[in-house]
Amino acid sequence: MKKVFLIFTALLFMGCSSVMKGLKTDKAVKIIFDTDMGNDIDDGLALDMLYKYVEDGKVDLLAITSNKKESGSTEYLDIMNNFYGFPNVPIGKITDGPDSKKGDHFAFNVSQDKSYKRSIKDYDKIPESVDLLRKTLQKHKNNSVVIVAVGFSSNLSRLLDSKPDDISPLTGKELIAKKVKYLCMMAGDFRPERKHSEYNVRLDKQSAQNVFKNWPTKIVTSPFEVGLDIKYPGSSISKDFTYVKKHPLVKGYEAFAKMPYDRQTWDLTSVLYAVEGDGNGKYFSLSSAGNIEVQEDSKTVYEPSAKGNRYYLKVNEEQKKAVANRFLEIITRVPKVLEK
């Protein structure tokens, strides 16, 4: 009888532990999150969604790679990992990345508060993003990893151009072709009437050109116009997070711009599609297959082609409402690590 009790206790402990760590099931989407955390608060909102999906057993978050070179970016990622109960998710940094908003960005501001728990002692010693990408891809099954990229294409381009090394005998392009299921990225603008050079593309045009031209797997991009009119309400930030005195996502939102304000959800749309797809048409519509070219003025051009493997998301008014409601449903949920 005592043996039975001990077995039951062990199983109960394992069950509780899996709630804290997230349930990794065969159906969980294996995701690497590549982000310019610190440039826009929608990266923080998107990361919150990923943690919640991990809790639900829908995502296995393999790694987070920063493509923003300021150290506050990686420190904020470490703070978020610990706050949400996932301190062991590996983080990568970028050296000599593209110029972007410097200094007093929201991630830097939050990282100045030393009361937040951290796991990393020296942010200068964390791996380069391209090395972490190669290491992560190498150890997972073929055609199993989805990369969600919501910033500059710098890390992706460097991965694509990487050479065989101690991590893998494959080139970056070969490794991507073997291990990546598809790339889901926030980039571009495909509106025929008001097309502009979208920020993620413009800040590192050459890398974006390389990725759209040479990436060997399917790419699904969520363009500027998709998240433009789907906004996360500042009123939610003010009233839905009182379950904790100090929340790094809330503090980041408050530091990004003067409250109250509603913020576009560009990066969140890529996360939603990567995990839940188009929702059987509830959330998105998908373009036909084609090719995407980044022009010298940084504008993106889509050309339909039956032989192409580039797609972009589209939304109508009803879908915008459904997506906005889904964002609220996920993000306002109390993280399991904080549930009483």
From TrEMBL:
Question: In the record, which residues are listed under signal peptide?
Answer: 1-21
InterPro entries per the UniProt record, alphabetical: Inosine/uridine_hydrolase_dom, Ribo_hydro-like
GO terms for molecular function, please? hydrolase activity
**Which keywords fit this entry according to its UniProt record?**
Hydrolase, Signal
Q: Transmembrane stretches, by residue range?
A: none
The name on file for this protein is: Nucleoside hydrolase
**Organism of derivation:** Pseudopedobacter beijingensis
Q: Where is the Inosine/uridine-preferring nucleoside hydrolase domain?
A: 31-276
Per its UniProt record, what PANTHER family does this chain match? INOSINE_URIDINE-PREFERRING NUCLEOSIDE HYDROLASE DOMAIN-CONTAINING PROTEIN, PTHR43264
Q: Which domain of life is it from?
A: Bacteria
